[in-house]
Structures are given as C-alpha cells and as structure tokens.
Design brief:
Strand content: 5-15%
Number of strands: 4
Structural class: mainly alpha
Length: 262
C-alpha cells in the first residue's frame, strides 16, 4: 500500500505543479508586459478551459472565480491524466484505501492557532469519496472557502507558515505528540527520510476540456463554517497506534505459529 500510494502522490503533485505554476508565472509577467497570455498557456499544455478565465481575471480581478476555476481544472486534469489510467486507477478501489477513508483517517488540516502548553488547534475537512471527481472539486471549494473566508483561520495559517519551517513531518505542528527521532513519541520522519527522490515517467498532456459540462461548476461556491478538528485528529492518532500494535501482535503470533508447525 505505501509504495503504491507514494507512486500515486509522486505523479499527482508534479502534475499539479506543472499545470498551475506556468499559469501563475505567466500572469506575473503579463502584469508588467503586454503579450498574448492565451498563446503561452497553449505552449504549456494548459487546458482551453482556463484561457477565458485568465482573460476575465486580467480585466475584473475576480480572485474567487479564478481560484474555483483552477480547482476544477486541476481535478479534471488529474482525472483525465492519472486517475483513469492504470495502475493508479486501481489504487482507489483497493480495500485498504477505502477502509482508511471510511474510518475517517483521511483529513486535510489547517493549523490555525498555536499553543505553547497544549496542542495547536486544527480545522479542515474529513475527506470522503476521494475517487469521485465531483466530490474532489467540492472538497477543494470548501477548503478554499474555509481558508480565505475565515479571517481567523487565514491569519493563523499564515503565522504558522511564517514561524514553522516545513519539513513534511507532523512534528511541525504537534511536536509534543510526534517526533522525527524520539521513538517514545509517535515517529513522523521528515520528508527526505521517509521517501527518496524519484524519477518521473511520461505523463499524457491531452486536454480534458471537450464538453461544456464543467462551466456550471464555476458558478457554485459553498460557504463553510469552521469546525475544530483538534480532538478528532488526536483521537485518530491513538486509534492508529492501537491498530498498528494489534497488527504487529497478530503478525508475530502468525510467525510463531508457522515456526511451531514446521
């Protein structure tokens, strides 16, 4: 499961970056220089869906519309170029992946209030039905609403990003619970210790936008009320530790039984 899931993430993140970064970089140049943004978006294989959105933004500066369109574009692109193609198309159907999601272990968390003597407070969403395209788009919209429409969350997240160097370890936000070295706490290594660098394989560059069905998705924008997930996230850690210890005991017992039977 770990290897397959890492392969999935290894492809997903560069896909997002390769699509979104050229758009933002081109716009930063277009602010001070006059050139045909649509032409350059084509060169970088950005979907036709985004071209009128950027043109509209250059005149009206509707950041909400632009962000919602980027969310839709990214998830549609991910669906077309990765999730519908083997072997990644099979990963989301696996029992272990679905079990993790159904038990509520898949969460997106924003650390928004740092505490010295207790846990940093977290908000965010519990991810459900990740395999469903419409669900992923809605999740993206809700996270955007939560992060940018709740000023307390936005202020807290910006302070966290400013104050805490990002290592990829959960110890970044809960150092009293997780540790990159101390095994007396829950071990959570930095990114470089957990996964080595990997060479990316070829990714299709075909355009997902072949019908106008996604245009109506741009018009819907949910309002989300902040929910404190600190307690729920902490309880999940305890449950995962219990599951891991139980699994280790069962594995050890099975090995002992196998030896006895030889």
């Amino acid at each position: 499961m770990e290897g397959s899931f890492f392969d999935f993430l290894k492809m997903q993140m560069p896909l997002f970056f390769a699509d979104a970064y050229p758009q933002l970089l081109l716009y930063s140049y277009a602010v001070n220089q006059s050139f045909d943004l649509r032409k350059f978006l084509t060169i970088f294989h950005v979907s036709r869906f985004m071209r009128p959105i950027w043109e509209q933004f250059s005149h009206k500066k509707n950041s909400t519309l632009l962000t919602i369109a980027l969310i839709i574009n990214e998830q549609q692109m991910l669906e077309e170029r990765l999730l519908t193609r083997p072997p990644h198309s099979q990963l989301l159907k696996r029992l272990d992946f679905q079990l993790q999601e159904n038990l509520g272990f898949t969460m997106v968390l924003f650390p928004y209030e740092q505490k010295k003597d207790t846990l940093t407070r977290m908000t965010g969403l519990v991810v459900k039905r990740f395999a469903d395209l419409k669900s992923r788009i809605l999740i993206g919209k809700k996270l955007y609403s939560l992060l940018f429409q709740d000023l307390q969350v936005l202020k807290g997240v910006l302070e966290f990003c400013r104050d805490v160097p990002h290592s990829g370890s959960r110890a970044d936000y809960w150092s009293g619970v997780f540790s990159t070295k101390n095994r007396n706490r829950v071990y959570s290594p930095v990114l470089g210790d957990a996964w080595s660098d990997a060479t990316l394989s070829y990714v299709p560059k075909n355009d997902w936008f072949v019908t106008d069905q996604s245009i109506k998705d741009v018009q819907s924008y949910p309002k989300v009320k902040r929910t404190d997930l600190t307690k729920q996230a902490y309880e999940q850690i305890n449950m995962l530790q219990m599951i891991n210890k139980t699994s280790q005991l069962i594995t050890a017992e099975n090995r002992e039984t196998a030896r006895s039977g030889q």
